[in-house]
Amino acid sequence: MPPLRLSILACIALCACATSLLAGGVFIAPHVVLAALLHPHDGTNATIVWQLRMPRVAIAAAVGAALAIAGALLQGLLRNPLVDPYLTGVSAGAAAAIALSILAGIATPWLPALGFVAGLGAAVVVALLARRGSGIDANRLILAGISLSALFSAIVAFAIARADSPDAAQQILAWLAGSIAGRTWSDLRFALPYLGMGSMLAIACIPALNALRAGDVRARTVGLDVDRAQWMILAAASLLTAASVTLAGIVGFIGLIVPHLARRVIGSDARSLLPASALLGAGLCAVADAIARSIIAPSELPLGVLLAFIGVPAFLYLYLHQEQRV
Amino acid sequence: MIALRQVTIGIGGRTLVREITGEVRAGEFVAVLGPNGVGKTTLLRSLCGLRSPQGGSIVLDGRDIAHLTPLERARHIAFVTSDDAMTDALTVRELVAIGRFPHHAWWEWNPTAGDERAVNDALDLVKLQPFAERPFATLSSGERQRAWIAMGLAQGTPIILLDEPTSHLDVRVAHRILALLRDLARAGRTIVCVLHDLNEAASYADRLMLLGCERMLAFDEPARVLDPTIVESAYGIAIERLDTSRGPRVFPVL
Predict the structure, then answer these.
(1) Tell me, what's the pLDDT at A322?
(2) Which candidate among A71, A312, B5, B185 keeps its CA 20 to 30 Å from the CA of B245?
(3) How far apart are CA A181 and CA A63, in angstroms?
(4) What is the average pLDDT score of chain B?
(5) Is pLDDT at A7 greater than 60 in this prediction?
C-alpha cells in the first residue's frame, strides 16, 4: 500500500510543480510552457520559464521538501507533534544575523551565506544547551530553542528599530516574511550541497526513527545508540532548515503541518513518512508560491504570510479533529 | 549465564544495594523481590546495560557487559518494561517488529522472512495474533503487557528481563503471563523478573532474589527465601508462613 500511495503523492507533487510553472505575473498556457521547456533558447517565453519560473518552482519544491523532512525528523526525535524545524533556533539565528548584516550595510549577495552560517551556529548553541550526558534532553531542547529564538527575535526587532532607511527595514521584514522572489539558479546551487547532506543524513536516520517510535528506553533496549541517533537527527534537521532559510527566509507551518498530513496518509513508518512528507511539502510550497506571485500580480504576497493564512486553519482543524477522535 | 560480581547499584549518587554477587543460569526463572525503592528496577536496568553499576561487574557468558556494544547487548538481552511513555499510534505488529532492530544493519530497512516469522511466533506465544493489526493505544492493560512481552520475545534473545510484568493485571491474566514466562524458561530462555507478590513469585520462579536494607538478603530457592525472619527484615513487618502442598506461602500478620 505505501508504494502506491507514495506514487500518487509523487504525481500530485509533479502536477503541483507543473501548475506552478503556468502561474505568475502573466499566465502562460501549458502548450507554451511545454514548447519553452523543449526549446530553452527560443524567445521570451523560454526566458521566463527557464530563468524566472523554473528556478522559483525548483526552489519552492526544495524548501517545502526540506522543511517537511526536518519537521518529520524533529517530531520523530522528540515524539512531539507540535514541534517544527524552527525549534532548533536556525531561523531565528539566521534572521538575527541577516538583520544585523543589513544594518551594517553588507552587500545583499553575502546575506544567504551569512544566514546559513549563523543559522547553523544557533542550532549548535541550542543543541549544546540541550545536552544531557552524551545525549539530548527533549525538554531542554524545546526550552533552549524557544529561549534562544526569543533572544534572536529581540535582536531582529532592535535592528529594525535602528535601521537608517526604510529600505533596510523593508529588506529585513522581507526575510522574516519568507519569500522566493528574485531567487535564481545560483541560489539553489549554493544550497544544494547542504540539502543533499541533510537528506542523506535523514535517510541514514530512518531505522533510528522507527525504533524511537517505541520510546527512548525501548529504543535503547533493542540496541539503538539513542544519543548518537539524536545528534544525527538534529544535524540533519538543522542542515535542511538552514539551507531552506537561506533560500526563502522564514517559511512557517510547512514543517509543522506537512508531517501531520503525511502521517495521516501513509502512517508513521519513517521509510514512507519521510518521502511522503518531502513530496507533500514540495507540492504544497510550489502551489503556495504560485498563488503568492499571482494573486495580487504584479505585486507578490510573501510566501510565509500566505502559508500562515492556509496553515493556521489547517493546523487547528487537524488538531481539533484529532482531539475529537481521541 | 549472567554473573554479578560484587555489583553495587544506585541512582544519582545514592547507593541502593551493595555488593550483589550471584549467578543466573541459562534456562532459569529468577524473581527479584523487595520493598518499593530498594533498587529492583535499577538492578534490571544495570543487567541490560541501560545503567552502569556504581561498582563491581556484570558478566554475560564470560564478557563484561560494559564492553559490549548496544547492539551486541540487544542480541543477548531483552528488557520488557511498561514505564516508558509512548505517544505514537503504532499497531501491535509494528510495535513487536521493533524488537527485530538488533538483527539489522542500518541500511537493511525491510523485514526479512525471519523477522516476519519471529514477530508472528511472538504474537502467537502471547496470544495476541488476533490483535496484531489493532492500534496499540486501543489495547487493555493486560493486552499491552502481553504486547511488550511479545516485543521482547521477537528480539530473539536468550535472556529476557521483565520489570513488574503483572502490575495492574487481574489474577487470571497475571497467572497466564507468569505461566508463559515459566514455559519460556523450561524451553531454555533465562528469565529475570521483578515481582511484588511473594507467593506469586514462589509459585512460578526457580529462585528468588530478595533485596532489602541496601543489600541482597537472600538468593535461593523459594522454600529457603520465604523464611519469615528474612522476609520480615526486608519489609519491616511481621510475617507468618504457611507450608502448602504447592510450596510455602507467606502472609503479613495483621
Answers:
(1) 63
(2) B185
(3) 13
(4) 91
(5) yes
pTM of the model: 0.88
Fold type of domain B2-252: Rossmann fold (3.40.50)
Identify the residue with better confidence: B1 or B117. Answer: B117
Sign of the Cα torsion B171, B172, B173, B179 reads positive
**Which residues of chain B lie closer than 8 angstroms to A213, CB-CB?**
86, 88, 90, 94, 98
> Taking CB atoms and an 8 Å limit, are A221 and B78 in contact across chains?
yes
Distances (CA, A) of A220 to B72, B109, B137: 12, 18, 21
Q: Do B104 and A211 touch (CB under 8 A)?
A: no
C-alpha cell recorded at residue A212: 524511537
Residues of B with CB below 8 A from A216's CB?
84
**Contact state of B95 with A214 under an 8 Å Cβ cutoff:** yes
Phi, psi (deg, nearest 5) at residue A115: -60, -40
By three-state DSSP, how is residue B19 classified? Answer: strand
Cβ within 8 Å, pair A268-B89: yes
Give me the interface pTM, i.e. the ipTM.
Answer: 0.88
The residue extents of the domains of chain B are 2-252
> Which residue range forms the structural domain that includes residue A168?
2-325
What confidence tens digit (pLDDT) does each residue in A19-37 have?
888 887 778 888 888 888 8
Contacts of B106 in chain A (CB under 8 A): 204, 207-208
Whether A204 sits inside 8 A of B75 (CB atoms) is no
Name the β-bridge partners of A313. none
pLDDT of A326: 39
Residue whose C-alpha is closest to residue B180's, from B167, B166, B170: B166
The number of distinct structural domains making up chain A is: 1
Query: Is B171 in the A-facing interface, judged by CB distances under 8 Å?
Result: no
Q: Helix crossing, A54-78 with A226-248: angle to 10°?
A: 150
